[in-house]
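Dear V.,

Thank you for sending over the compound details. I've combined the ligand you provided, zinc ion, with the protein sequence from our construct and run the structure prediction for the complex. I'm sharing the raw inputs here so there's no ambiguity about protonation or stereochemistry in the SMILES, which I know was a concern on your side last time.
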Amino acid sequence: MKALVWHGTTDIRCDSVPDPEIEQPRDAIIKVTSCAICGSDLHLYNHFMPGMKSGDIMGHETMGEVVEVGSEAKGKLKVGDRVVIPFTIICGECEQCKRGNFSVCERTNRNGHIAAKAFGHTTAGLFGYTHLTGGYAGGQAEYLRVPFADATHIKVPNGIPDEKLLFLSDIFPTGWQAAVQCDIQPTDTVAIWGCGPVGQMTIRSAILLGAKQVIAIDRIPERLAMAGAGGAITINIDEDSVIERLNELTNGKGPEKCIDAVGMEAHATATIDSMYDRVKQATMMETDRPHVLREMAYVCRPAGTLSIPGVYGGLLDKIPFGAIMNKGLTIRTGQTHVNRWSDDLLRRIEKGQIDPSFVITHTVSLDEGPDMYKVFRDKQDGCIKVVIKP
Ligand SMILES: [Zn+2]
Ligand SMILES: [Zn+2]
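Below is the predicted structure of the protein with zinc ion bound, written out as structure tokens.
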């Protein structure tokens, strides 16, 4: 089959590789009908995240049709079922899965001992996302082996196009969880840093959840235009001071809820602290750039919440913890517990409350995938979200 394969920094190729096969009784094989490139794939493309090996298949936003089912997954899945595959692999049986904390499933990361060295405890296995999260093949391919497939799937009905359903795999529940974690009240101003695909889903989620005003912060005009079309007030960081504008929009009090949908590759702006991060990151003294986190901690209204769906990998320094503690801020973080939200979100798509396909700007074949990584990273051609049709 064809698949997008990682060979090194900024070197992803469309290769011919062996078809996946059932390896464990709980596996299933799906024929991929649609997959997508995620912003966090760029962390692998740019090699900010360690743990990739040459030959690894990329991709963790995938849906398709079940073509083969292992003996122990047969009660839950059958050939012909249409499924979206959550990016987090879940066993459905451990203590964390039983509590709905799926992204910290205790059993699915087969390299959990390595994750535990980095984080203190293991986290769930992920598709196509380094050997720290299990080294599982990803779904930017014609076929995908789904481990723990009896639990790791979202069944979706026929009659709704892939484009509306595919993002149940990651960015829609990720944006939703980021907004839900803010416990949004009808009087709240919610400020969202980053208008990439996750930021766009967060904006729409915060509006669906009834925020008084939602403010979107970015520097790319087409992303800001998309945010505005979704109902957000926009701030272009190249034109305005973020903190001044946020204070203007909140009578000097600051937003109650601040969401970092940027993560470790935050744009290095001309501010002193981000230059400092850039130097430290370039010299490997610091792995992540927390400029957005700092800005959020300072501007957030006392007793407010900082929600962080953006991906961080390692250590941060110069975090204004005094501001966080003295202002009584709540920090909520986490990889997405996809299956915790998927029933509700599927119903909202079916009812027409939201159509997540608004975010798609490019649809290409697998052969065009390697070029699209570059186009997406460099935000060329108005690119916000790429869907691949194998
Ligand atoms: Zn993702
Ligand atoms: Zn589990």
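A first observation: The domain at 174-333 is CATH 3.40.50.720 (Rossmann fold).

Warm regards,
I. M.
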